[in-house]
Every structure is written in C-alpha cells, then in structure tokens.
Design a protein that fits this description.
Layout lengths: L1 H4 L3 H28 L3 E10 L5 E12 L3 E3 L5 H4 L4 H23 L7 E5 L2 H4 L3 H13 L6 E6 H6 L3 H11 L2 E7 L6 H4 L6 E4 L1 H4 L4 H16 L3 E4 L5 H9 L4 E2 L8 E2 L12 H8 L4
Parallel strand pairs: 2-4, 4-5, 5-6, 6-7, 7-8, 8-9
Antiparallel strand pairs: 1-2, 1-9, 1-10, 2-3
The chain binds ligand C2E and magnesium ion (MG) (3 copies).
The site of ligand C2E has 24 residues, from strand 2, helix 4 and strand 6.
Organism: Kineococcus rhizosphaerae
Protein name: Diguanylate cyclase (GGDEF)-like protein
C-alpha cells in the first residue's frame, strides 16, 4: 500500500494506458476472428416511404454474436475496427452480405421481395481505392441493380478524407446511391449540400426525436433545403406519432425508427407500414361512409 501511494501519477497513468491498449488489442483480435468465423450478423431496419406508407428499403446494421458476451452492438466495436484496416474487411463483408440478402428475399417472394438496402461504410474504407472494387464485386456477385444499393457515410468523413469525394463520385457513376448519415451533427452547411455528390440526406435522430420546437423548425428547414437541391430526405429515430405528423407536414420523403420497427434479423423483417392516423381510421369505419 505504501508502495502504491508512493508511485507517481505518470506511472499510474502509464499502467492504465497499457491496460486500455491491451484491451483494445484483444478486442481487435477477437473481432477479426469473429469476422472470419461468422460471428457477425446483419440486422435490418425498415425505412418507410412516407408517400406510399410502405417499406421501400432497409438499413443493414451490424451485430456481433460474441461467444460469452451476447449480442454486441456496433458502438462497442466499430470504433476499435476503425483504428485498423479491419473496418474495411468488415465493410466488404457487409456489402457482400447485404446484397446477397436482397437476392434471398427476392427468391422468397412476398413483402421482402424487391427491397433496397443501405450499408454503412466507414470513412477509412471510403478513402481506400479498393472500396470501389468491393462495391463492384458485391454488385456482380449478387447481380442486383446498382440502384438498389445505398452507401451511407457520415458527414465528418467528407472533411477528413481527401479521396472521399472522388470515390463518392465514382460510386454514383456506377449507379449506386449515396446517403449522408447523421446529418446535423457535423460541420456541413446547408449551402455545401448542393455541391456534394450525394442523393439522400439522413437527418440525425437527435433533431428528430428531441421534442424541442426549435429542432422541429430546423428539421423543416433541412427538408426544404434538401428538396431544393433535389436530395431525398430520411428522418432517423422516429419514435412518436407527433414526430411522424410533423415529418408528414414537412413533406419528408422517408422515415426510420422504433415507431415503425426496430432492427431485426433478416428472417424476422416485418411488413412495416406507416400507422394510419386515428381520425382516418374513424372515418373509414363510419357506417355508410
Ligand atoms: P446509424 O447508421 O446512424 O444507424 C442508426 C442507429 O439508430 C442504429 O443503431 C439503430 O438501431 C438506431 N435507431 C433506429 N431507430 C431508432 C429509434 O427510433 N430510436 C433510437 N433510440 N435509436 C434508433 P445501431 O444499430 O446500434 O448502430 C449504431 C451505429 O453503428 C450506426 O449508426 C452506424 O454508424 C454504426 N454501424 C452499424 N452498422 C455498421 C456497419 O456495418 N459498418 C459500419 N462502419 N458502421 C456501422
Ligand atoms: Mg446509417
Ligand atoms: Mg444515422
Ligand atoms: Mg450513427
């Protein structure tokens, strides 16, 4: 005890840092092994088209079925994967798996046939020239139309990665769609939107589900700005009816959130629909109406 008390702050900090580094290295090894042995799985969350009220596409969200740890969410391992080329291997796997899933759903028929899919791609992967090969391979191996694939990238990537813009342009030339994820959390101004090689803006859930009147106005503004630049808009994190009503009133194109469906394994994907407003149901149910 006396010995510990006599140790310098730097030494203790050193120990903590060493333990932290060891934990990260172990996680990285386990993740690499998990990727190779099929422990990673994609969950899918419906994205609803607010014009038709039906599911038009799904977002693929990775989960890690790590033995002894249960189902590990992406926030617990993506940051570690992003520290190395592992995140590129993960992205390549996700592109192949998600496009193959569309083919399986097409063959199955029913409400899951003909869907589109969005895959999250890390900035580190987007900066690599082989990203284009990974996308081309996934399209060729699955045979799906390029327009059924959307690549989601976060806003900050556009500033941090010099090659990102060039690669996004190439992706769009292939016919793949590009979405900016978590919009509003970074530094992109509305004015810059017109010059970015993107098709879709995904408004971050912190603006959609805050319940703050100022945020509701901001969302309206973002939607009209996006539309004036011919971008589609997806609202993330819709959890309540009132949020949905505000989005419908603002002519938002699509929405995603727990109000409609949570992310689920491929086999459980529901035929999610926009709930019909209570008064519309009442009118339809009126005798003689
Ligand atoms: P994201 O791409 O912004 O995905 C949306 C996240 O919001 C998902 O969390 C989803 O489950 C969650 N979400 C959806 N609707 C609601 C809602 O109504 N309320 C709340 N509270 N949350 C909602 P998830 O699956 O934990 O993923 C977290 C993040 O991890 C993703 O954020 C994405 O940035 C990253 N990620 C997921 N899969 C991948 C992947 O395959 N590759 C990479 N590079 N990143 C991934
Ligand atoms: Mg996303
Ligand atoms: Mg997001
Ligand atoms: Mg996110």
């Amino acid at each position: 005890r006396a010995k510990a008390a006599g140790r310098g702050v730097v030494e203790v900090f050193d120990d903590e840092l060493r333990a932290e580094l060891a934990a990260r290295t172990e996680l990285e090894h386990a993740l690499r092994h998990g990727l190779e042995t099929g422990e990673l799985v994609l969950y899918y969350q419906p994205v609803l088209d607010l014009e038709t009220g039906r599911t038009k596409s799904v977002e693929a969200l990775v989960r890690w079925q790590r033995p002894g740890h249960g189902l590990v969410p992406p926030d617990a391992f993506i940051p570690v994967a992003e520290a190395s080329s592992l995140v590129c291997d993960l992205g390549r796997w996700a592109l192949a798996e998600a496009t193959a899933q569309l083919v399986r759903w097409d063959a199955e028929g029913g409400h899951r046939a003909g869907l589109e899919v969005a895959v999250n791609i890390s900035g580190r992967h987007l900066a690599q020239a082989h990203l284009l090969d990974d996308v081309t391979d996934a399209l060729a191996d699955s045979g799906i139309a390029p327009s059924r694939l959307t690549v989601e990238i976060t806003e900050t990537v556009l500033v941090d990665e010099p090659l990102a813009l060039e690669h996004l342009r190439s992706l769009r030339e292939l016919g793949v769609r590009v979405a900016i994820d978590d919009f509003g959390t970074g530094y992109t101004s509305i004015g810059q939107l017109s010059r970015l090689p993107v098709d879709v803006l995904k408004i971050d859930r912190s603006f959609v589900s805050s319940g703050d009147a100022g945020h509701t106005e901001l969302v309206k503004l973002l939607i009209s700005a996006a539309h004036s630049f011919s971008l589609g808009v997806v609202a993330e994190g819709v959890e309540e009816d009132t949020q949905l009503s505000a989005l419908l009133a603002a002519s938002c194109d699509a929405a995603q959130g727990y109000l409609f469906a949570r992310p689920v394994p491929a086999a459980d994907l529901p035929a999610a629909e926009v709930p019909v407003a209570a008064d519309a149901v009442a009118i339809a149910a009126e005798p003689g109406a």
